[in-house]
Amino acid sequence: MTIVQTENLTKTYGAGDAAITALAGVNVSVRAGEFVAVMGPSGCGKSTLLHLIGGLDRPTSGRVLINGSDLSTLDDMRLTELRRRHIGFVFQFYNLIPVLNAAENAALPLTLDGLKPAEAQARAAEWLKKIGLGDRLASRPDELSGGQQQRVAVARALAADPKLVLADEPTGNLDSRAADDIASLLRQVSEEWGRAVLMVTHDPRIAAYADRIIFLKDGTVVDETKLSGNGADESDRVREKADAL
């Protein structure tokens, strides 16, 4: 089942001689249970693609379908509702609230959607236990390592049981060991829990955990590579392709 589909997705900033085309007619898709990485040089449109798919920005032309829903047909309220219930976000710098503990942070999408705090935290706690933080439910962000904070962010992304998880450089602020742990966790999110995962990364070693890599250059898709998902075993091949762009 296809969870994400873009059709001739184009995004232009500015107008006239000052216009900059960030994406030009991009067609990508991600199925349920598939882990897809997006790579390419700085300024190639990776983050723009993620923002358009996540409904954080609107395309100049083309469209984004999430589980069959055309984002261009949704008003701001319905778009916010779709993001909250069907898309989980993981960012490079965690974006946790310092005064809230792990369970409260992970429960935020549910509480914002109107669920009672106690029930929201109970559901969030289940996800924190699944990802290995069952003993840190009451810990605040400053009491957790970077890798643990990012695990809380992953639990927050999963709390509302979304069909899609979007990860923007999720390992960019971590050491290599913690980065591998998060990449492995995202693979588990797709493989074991059946979510579609779309990750932007500049790191070939992290991209090698994916099932497939989409390479962007100058706002267009220039290559796609299927992988076995064995991480380090294929990182050299990924690095060679990335360096060739």
Question: How would you explain this protein's 3D organization?
Answer:
There is one protein chain. The protein has 245 residues and is an alpha/beta fold. It has a single domain, classed as 3-Layer(aba) Sandwich (Rossmann fold), CATH 3.40.50.300. The chain is built from 9 helices and 11 strands. It has helices spanning 46-53, 76-86, 102-106, 108-112, 117-130, 146-158, 176-191, 204-207, 235-243; strands at 2-13, 20-26, 29-31, 35-39, 61-66, 69-70, 87-90, 164-168, 196-200, 212-217, 220-226. Helix 7 links the parallel strand 8 (164-168) and strand 9 (196-200). The chain is globular and about 50 Å long.
List the helices and strands and how they pair.
Layout: E1 2-13, E2 20-26, E3 29-31, E4 35-39, H1 46-53, E5 61-66, E6 69-70, H2 76-86, E7 87-90, H3 102-106, H4 108-112, H5 117-130, H6 146-158, E8 164-168, H7 176-191, E9 196-200, H8 204-207, E10 212-217, E11 220-226, H9 235-243
Parallel strand pairs: 4-9, 4-10, 7-8, 8-9
Antiparallel strand pairs: 1-2, 1-3, 1-5, 5-6, 10-11
Helix pairs in contact: 6-7
Could you give a quick summary of the protein structure above?
The protein has 245 residues and is of the alpha/beta class. The chain has nine helices and eleven strands.
Strand runs, count: 11
* CATH topology-level fold name: Rossmann fold
Q: Which strand order spans the largest sheet, edge to edge or round the barrel?
A: 7-8-9-4-10-11
The CATH class designation is Alpha Beta
| Stretches with pLDDT under 50, minimum 5 residues | none
Q: Provide mean pLDDT, rounded.
A: 92
Distance between the termini: 31 Å
Q: Could you tell me the radius of gyration in angstroms? A: 18 Å
